[in-house]
Amino acid sequence: MPLDITWFDCHPTMQGVTKQLGGPMHELAAKVDEYARGMISGSGSTLFEELGLYYIGPIDGHNIDDLVSILKEVKSTKTTGPVLIHVVTEKGRGYSYAVKVADEYHGVAKFDPATGKQLKARAPTQSYTTYFAGALIAEAEPDKDIVAIHAAMGGGTGLNLFQCSFPARCFDVGIAEQHAVTFAASLVCEGLKPFCAIYSSFMQRAYDQASLQ
Q: How far apart are CA 119 and CA 2, in angstroms?
């Protein structure tokens, strides 16, 4: 794909990176150009340029050689402002069990490397999370307006159990607590009864939404 020369000439950082790294990095520059084309604003600048940033990416975070080369080149290149390097990685890469159930490997207890099974001690009672999920499921069975929302924490909040019972009424919004709260408020406006389960440590991301929505 040909590069947008007008855009590319305005980015000395990208020029330096691609000149030093050769062929593979020209493919990366093409990807960056393609991404930038989709974010052109009315003024002719990309979103990141509007924020005063030089954008490089997306970059395969598992290609260590390219990543280190890019970081070194950016460090040694003089720019007129900060540089944003967009690195894409896969959680659990290299260990198949962690890739399959990424949420269970967010915080890891002792586990068997051969099977991936975590060796957790049995508690005398069920966890608070399990009680919460069970109670919500019991309330939702007779009330079709009850829905559940979590931010990429189905296992941690117990809502994966809710999803097993009501797959069409459980929403994972990803790591976006702000959106989770606003989404919940929107559902209320439509007459539904959302239960939005968010870890208290992550709720700080949605303070404004909780206050305003």
A: 53
CA pair distance 10, 130, nearest whole angstrom: 55
Q: How far apart are the C-alpha atoms of 41 and 37, rounded to whole Å?
A: 9
Look at the block and give the residue holding tokens 């900060």: 82
DSSP 90: -
Task: Give the list of residues 6+ apart from residue 91 with CB closer than 8 angstroms, or none.
Answer: 98, 99, 102, 105
Q: What are phi and psi of 122, to 5 degrees?
A: -75, 130
The reply to whether the predicted model has a pTM over 0.70 is no
Cα distance between residue 14 and residue 138, in whole Å: 56
In whole angstroms, how large is the CA radius of gyration of the chain? 23
121-137 confidence digits (pLDDT tens): 787 888 899 999 999 99
* Residues forming the active site: 91, 177, 205
Residues with Cβ within 8 Å of 42's Cβ and at least 6 positions away in sequence, in order, are none
Longest dimension (CA), the chain: 66
Question: pLDDT digit string (tens) for 168-207?
Answer: 999 999 999 999 999 999 999 999 999 999 998 898 898 8
| Listed residue (203, 102, 198) closest to 150, CA to CA | 198
Amino acid identity at 90: E
Residues contacting residue 161 through CB under 8 Å, at least 6 positions apart: 130, 133, 134, 137
